[in-house]
Structures are given as C-alpha cells and as structure tokens.
Design brief:
The complex is a heterodimer. By secondary structure, chain A is mainly alpha-helical. In chain A, helix 1 packs across helix 2, helix 2 crosses helix 10 and helix 6 runs parallel beside helix 13. The longest helix of chain A is centred in the middle third of the chain and has 43 residues. The longest helix of chain B has 35 residues. Chain B is an all-alpha fold. Helices cover 79% and strands 1% of the residues of chain B. Chain B is built from seven helices and one strand. The chains are: A mainly alpha, B mainly alpha. The interface between A and B is large, with 50 and 33 residues. Strand 1 of chain A pairs antiparallel with strand 1 of chain B.
Amino acid sequence: MDPTTLLLLLALLFGLYMAWGIGANDVANAMATSVGARAITVKQAILIAAVFEFLGAFLAGGEVTSTIRKGIIDSSALVGDPDVLILGMLAALLAAAVWLTVASRFGWPVSTTHSIVGAIVGFAIATIGMEAVHFDKVGSIAASWVVSPLLAGTLSFLLVRSVQWLILDRPNPELYARRYVPAYIFLAALNISLVTLLKGLKHIGLDLTAFEAIGYSVAFALVIMAGGAVMVRRIHTATATEMEDYHYANVERTFAVLMIVTACAMAFAHGSNDVANAIGPVAAIISTVQSGEVFQKASVPPYVLLLGAAGIVIGLATYGYRVMATVGRKITELTPSRGFAAELAAASTVVLASGTGLPISTTHTLVGAVLGVGLARGISALNLGVIRTIFMSWVITLPVGAVLAVLFYYMLRAALL
Amino acid sequence: MANYFEGIFGRSPFKPVQEHMDLCHQAAALIEELLARAGSQSWPEVEEIREQIVALERRADDRKRDIRLHLPRGFFLPVARADLLDLLARQDKIANKAKEIAGLIVGRRMSFPPAIQESALELTRTSISACQRALDVVNELDELIATGFRGVEVQRVEEMIDALDESESRNDDAQVRLRAELHGLERELDAVDVIFLYRIIDRIGDLADNAQSVGHRLEMMLAR
C-alpha cells in the first residue's frame, strides 16, 4: 500500500472512531431532557437523533469543520512541509478520541470540542512553534466556551420567565398554553432554519440570497407551527385525579408537543457543531494529501461531512441508545414547561455558534441552560459541585489533549515515516 | 460507563418532604379514633391504634433522616436549604405530638368523662383538619416550583394558608370551651386525672399549632 492511501485510510478510520464516540456518548446528553420529561420515548429519541444529527452535520456542519481544519493553525508556517500537518492532525484525532474513551469510561466531564482543540494547539506548538497557532482565533474559541453557557443560561432564564408570565400566571393556564405553545414552536423552527439557510447550503447545490433565506425560513417555521398547532389540539387531557395531584398536568401535556420540536432542534444543533470535532482534522488531511500542498482554498467536501454524520448515527445505534435510556431515566426533574426552555436556549446558542464557525461544547451549553432554569427557581435540586467540576474540566482537558497529541505525533512519525 | 450530565440533577427533596407531611397527618388523624375507643373503654383497640401511630411516627422519622442525609450543602434549591429543613422539623413535631397523646391515653388508661367526650372529639377534629390543611399547603410545593414561586399559584397558596389559620383559631375556641366544661366537672373527678386531661387538651391543641407553624414556614419560602 502506498503511504498516501495508508494515511488517508488512517484518517478516515480515526475520524469514524471519533464520530462513533460522539454518537455513543454525547448525543444522549442532547436528548436526555426530552426523554426525561416523557415528551418522547427512548425509541423516538433515537429516531429523532439519527435523522436530525445527520441533517445538522450534513447541512450546517461545514463552518465549524473549516475552523478546526484551518482556523487554528497558521497555514503559512507549514507550506512545503505537508507531512507535519498530516501526521499532526492524525495524532490530534487519535489523542482526542482516546482521551474521550478513557473519560467516558470513568464518567469524567470531558468535552469533545475542548479535547480536539487542545490536541491541535498542542501538536502545533510542539512541532512547529508558538508562531504556528492563530492565537487570536484560539482566543475567540476559548472565549466562546465561557460565553456560550452564559448566553444559553440567560436565554433559558428568560424563556422560563416568559412562560410564567404568559401562561402559568393566569387563571386559566391551559387556554394560554394552547395559544402560546405554537408560537414557541415557530420560534424554535425559525431559529434553526434561519441560521442554517443564512449561512448557505451551497455544498448541496442550494444557493440562496439573504432575502430568499429569510423567506424560506419563515415559510418553513410556519409549516412546522401549523403541524404543532394540530398536535396541540389533539392532546389527551388529564383526568380529574391527575389534575388534583398536579394542577398543571394539561399545561405540561401541551408543552410536551413543543419538546418534540426542541428535541429535533437540539439534535440538529449538536450535529452541526460536534461533527466537526471528528471530521475537521480528516478534512485537513484529505485536502493536503490530495493536493500535495497545505491548506488549499476549497471548502469541506460534502462526502466528509457525510462520513461524520454516518459515524455519529452508527455510534448512536451501537451504544448511544443505552446511554440515552439511562440518562433519560435519571433526568426527571425537568418537566416539559421548563425542559423545553433549556433545550431551546441551548439549541439556539449552539446553532448560532455553528453558524459563526465557533466550536463550542454542546453539553456545557446545555448545562448553562439548565442552570438558567434553576435560577428562575424552576428546578427542585441542582448539584452545584458537579456543575463546578464540569466547567473546571476544560482546564484539565486542554493540556491532556495537547500532551497526548504530541505523544501520538512522535509515535506515528516513528512508525510511518 | 458513567454519564456526567445526569449528575447535575440532584435528588429532589420536595416529594419526600410531601410524603413526610402525609405520614404526620395520618398519625394525627388516628387520634380521633383513639379517643373514641378510649371513651368506650375498648382498650385492646386503643392499644392497636397507638401501635399504628407509633409505626407512622417511626416511618416519618426515617423519612426525615433520609431527606437530611440526601440534602448536601452543595445543592442549589429554589428555596433556602435551612428553610426546607426547618419546615421538615416542624412537620415532624405533628407526628411526635400524636405519639405523645397516644402514649398518655394508653399509659394511664385515660378517657374524657362522657359529659365532655363530644367536645373533646370536636376539638380533635378541628386539630386534624388543621393538619389536613397544612398537608394541602405542602402538597402545592411542586406547583410552586413549576411556576417559579410566582403569580396566581402564590396567591392560591396564600389563600390556603389563610384557611389553615382559620382552622387553628377555631381550634383555639374549641379548646377554651372544652377547658371551661372540664373546669365545671373538676370537683367530681380524680385530681390527678384532671391534671392529665388538661395536659391532653394541651397536646391536641399543639397538633393544630404545629400545623399552623408548618404553613407559616412555607409562607416565608414564598418571599425571596
């Protein structure tokens, strides 16, 4: 086998492994709130995740992939030395994937995104030097890790408050739930489609102007809202005993419809941001191997996005469904009227980040959104200790990813060159 | 494999607090039957009811300990942790009082004189209804969390607490009447018995007082 083919195969293999890991572990977090709130069953969650992770990765995963591929390392430092980049990206992929496997094994709160960014920065500093890193870009990525949970938390807080104000604080909350839930559905659908369409779908041959994009997004959101309105009308109302036990039983049932939509949005957002962690390095390797030079201008080839999307779905089908069932069973504190707020806030933030090409941690964003609900006095108990550990974990994840990447880089170089 | 995301959701203390209040109310509710049986001198039945009350009080104690053990300081709750633990302690006093009353009745084979038995039962009923109303208030906790302790739901709970206060003041009136009636009979009764009858009246009144204090503690949680 000639070395080029071998490198390509290794890249695809490692990329698939990483995507599998994301599908096996991360997706469960994205879907858990909907499953826990009993808005959807585990089976439905897997179906939604498979479809929308795929769509998110394929339709909206391009920007973040470009960032991982060429936004972190300065291309000029590597011209004429493509091997360093190829081996380095391979090492980064392997480092992140191995570190994630170990972390998931022990239940450590490690973010996929932080691992891969740490790994790429690590090998670049070790092999080429500090000047090889786009520190302005890395700085904005690091800033987005702080901003994204904050933004999601603020959004979810405001959403919970809006529900309290518009629906729950009324003499007849059921009536107002039926009236406003379709509006929230519209908001969720519009947000996702607007970011996706505005950013462009050129890679599937759909070239829209901004005006067309807005028009199509509104039309799409209206269709989804109409569908939601029909479902809201069809919900089975709670029995008198159920209402006696919990006065907001019917309101929750109405919100459960909304939670189906936000679950789709969450899966889409997760796919759009997290697929890049697996295939960003793969895309970098492929373009370098094929052209023989470093960092050509062409965008991410669609088939690479497809590979990542497929990897996530395989991970979900082989292992992720079990994680989803366990996590969903344990997260029962968030009923639909509050769970939707966490999901919608997180999904909006993540999709926004994907649109601007910022690789953020979906789980950390979701944790921020859940905290926002808690601050609105909407959750019976939040474990602050665990939350602190989750947010502190990236302090550890970055250096570990970096050191592992350097180690793997020298191992691969010894083995392959 | 373990998942870390689920770890951010702590075990909710509110459902267990509601169950604890339910046990306390059940214990208090048995006092009426206990006094009625004591009035007809059916001591084996009285003893049986006392055992039921003791068992309920023990279960409430276990539940209380369990809640305390699973409520670490690192939890972020929609109400202050100290407020919640204080509410729990006040609920617990209801079960303890019920046990004390049952112990006194059985230990001294006591019953109210037939002439004031009906008034004693009436007093007990008002105490139990105060406990029932306190339970109703505590059962609104999950609705309060759903609404973020705001709006119409808060008004509803405040109205329920007003009703509880009314129960307690009716209980005070019943107590005054019963004491007057007992005072009228004092000379015909054994002195030691009279002392203990007053003590039992006190304890039955305490049931309602404790129920009221549960309501007041919850009322303080509404404003934050």
